[in-house]
Design a protein that fits this description.
By secondary structure, this protein is of the alpha/beta class. About 35% of the residues lie in helices and about 20% in strands.
Length: about 575
């Protein structure tokens, strides 16, 4: 008897996957069976398959295939996220290669290029998921910026605005100087940074004395509008009540204020107050009616408001100003100092706190039913340890900054009137009718209105995902949303518990009056066998497609499952692929 050749997955897997897809075996339509639904965490349109995707999608495929075997009507909805910041950066870089600057283009022309880029390069990851054997219903593929999803997003914005939940105002935001846009608190990653504490001398007017102030950011003296000491600090009892000091190098005369906010034990107990560039300083500024001087351009260079150091990058200025202070005898000393600095989760640059006119969504009321649902296990977290992390965030929730200073995304449907004020409407025609009504000017034309330049945060699309993939925002009573919603299980990483999971739960209760899914299964982080997080930078992350080519998709999937347990990090070792095969 002839011994069979060794099994060669390369010859078998593609053949059967093509057969399954050709015969529509992954496709689902509502019928009499019990539905079992999973929505994919939509990967960025810029994304490529990495080990985290391998883990996440293998687990989803296990759940969906098991449901099919149990006779359920299994529906796994795939899709992509338009990823405003990441995609705009890719398009800008691509245009630069062709000698085209974004600033030289109209919005319309830039968006033409962006859609062209999306059609050519976007969505590679969905093709790669087929190589993994993911049994998604590809006929249902959605994109967070397609027509159905976009109409839904605009509808929700207008609805929340009418309910008084969305407002516009000047607030302190996290500013990303690389992407030149505001970010939400959840998009800021705090990292330990090694820098210096600079002790600066502020001359007290009318005396030969000076106050010493410790700061980690000497460049921000350009925006100082007060100096603050604690009224209980005995070291400053000699200061007259109306004392004023001179900002080093700048020469600006500023008042000394007294407030218990200042920590007597930190540094010298004297605090420089820069209301435009620190959230706590901003609050002090509001309390004492201080001037606000914004010293930065949107790209993190110095603007011309102070008349010195104009055009210089903020970190270059920090280096230069240290020498200038030293030469002017205004630097007492420096010390090595370690503190936590916020970085943009998207571009990796240090964020700048910045006063900016933005749109916000009030979160407090939205959070209440969503908190209760998880704490009472109406929605079950696996593992349970994430419940308390979720509760803590929800109970301390801040309003969500939902506007982004970009062109790629859903444009905010607010239209400004010629003499001030604005209207919010789903279409330009509806905006014109509202504008005529508001102004009493029947001759007003669409050309007299100016639509807001900003787009909505990408997460403002994806928080509607379990509803919008079934067109449940535009058509809330359609057959599909009634059949497939709420979905069964969500498989995701704990790193987006606030960005995405919490917000989907809020949207579910606000727009369907019920939970969006029954269970949330949190995967761990994929690490190498010595425990380091896998990353391109470390060079310790294999290309999943190479592993699939070598060991077959099934061998690879078994390897992921052998090394995985809910919520615990995955110690991946390539030897497991051999075992899996």
């Amino acid at each position: 008897m002839q011994i069979a050749d060794k099994y060669a997955p390369q010859e078998i897997e593609q053949k059967w996957y093509d057969y399954w897809e050709r015969h529509g075996l992954f496709h689902s339509e509502p019928d009499a069976r019990e539905p079992y639904t999973i929505v994919i965490p939509p990967p960025n349109v810029t994304g490529m398959l990495h080990m985290g995707h391998m883990l996440n999608n293998t687990l989803q495929d296990v759940l969906i295939r098991r449901a099919r075997m149990q006779g359920k009507n299994a529906c796994w909805v795939p899709g992509m996220d338009h990823a405003s910041i990441a995609t705009e950066a890719k398009v800008v870089a691509k245009l630069k290669e062709r000698g085209i600057e974004k600033s030289s283009l109209t919005r319309e022309k830039f968006l033409e290029y962006a859609w062209e880029w999306k059609e050519q390069y976007g969505g590679v990851i969905l093709r790669q998921l087929r190589k993994l054997g993911a049994s998604c219903d590809w006929d249902r593929t959605c994109f967070t910026m397609d027509d159905i999803r976009t109409e839904g997003v605009i509808k929700v914005f207008c609805d929340l605005y009418r309910k008084g939940r969305i407002y516009r105002g000047v607030r302190m935001v996290n500013w990303d100087p690389a992407a030149r846009t505001a970010l939400s608190d959840e998009e800021v990653v705090f990292k330990e940074s090694h820098g210096k504490l600079y002790y600066l001398r502020y001359a007290v007017e009318g005396t030969d004395k000076y106050l010493v102030v410790a700061t980690t950011r000497p460049e921000t003296i350009l925006g100082d509008t007060a100096l603050c000491v604690n009224p209980d600090d005995e070291r400053y009892e000699w200061l007259p009540q109306d004392a004023r000091v001179v900002v080093p190098l700048v020469g600006r005369s500023i008042p000394v204020i007294r407030d218990t906010y200042v920590d007597i034990a930190f540094g010298t107990g004297a605090l420089k107050v820069t209301p435009a560039h620190d959230v706590n300083d901003y609050m002090l500024g509001e309390k004492y009616g201080l001037e606000t001087i914004d010293i930065f351009n949107d790209d993190g260079t110095i603007n011309g408001k102070v008349g010195i150091y104009e055009g210089m990058d903020r970190f270059e200025l920090r280096r230069v100003i240290e020498g200038d202070l030293q030469r002017a005898g205004l630097l007492e000393k420096t010390e090595e100092y370690t503190n936590n600095v916020g970085y943009s989760e998207r571009t990796g640059v240090a964020i700048e706190p910045k006063l900016s006119m933005q749109w916000f969504l009030s979160m407090e009321e939205l959070a209440k039913p969503a908190t209760r649902a998880v704490m009472e296990d109406e929605i079950r977290f696996v593992p349970e340890k994430y419940k308390n992390i979720y509760r803590h965030w929800m109970e301390n929730i801040k309003d969500w900054c939902i506007s982004r200073q970009l062109w790629w995304g859903q444009r905010i449907p607010a239209y400004y009137l010629p003499k001030g004020g604005y209207v919010v409407a789903e279409t330009a025609e509806e905006a014109l009718a509202l504008a005529r009504e508001k102004t009493g000017d029947a001759a007003l034309q669409l050309s007299d209105l100016r639509q807001d330049e900003d787009v909505l945060d990408t997460w403002f699309s994806s928080w509607l995902w379990p509803i919008s993939v079934f067109d449940g925002i535009r058509n809330p009573d359609n057959e599909e949303i009634r059949y497939y919603y709420p979905t069964a299980d969500l498989v995701t990483g704990p790193d987006i518990i606030f960005f995405w999971v919490a917000r989907m739960i809020m949207a579910g209760y606000e727009y369907r009056g019920e939970k969006p899914f029954g269970n949330v299964y949190f995967t761990g982080i994929v690490r190498d066998k010595i425990g380091r997080k896998m990353s391109k930078q470390l060079g310790n992350s294999p290309d999943p497609l190479d592993l699939i080519a070598q060991y077959g998709a099934d061998g690879m999937r078994v390897a992921m499952l052998l090394s995985s347990s809910a919520g615990n990090d995955v110690m991946f070792d390539e030897a497991l692929c051999e075992q899996g095969r």
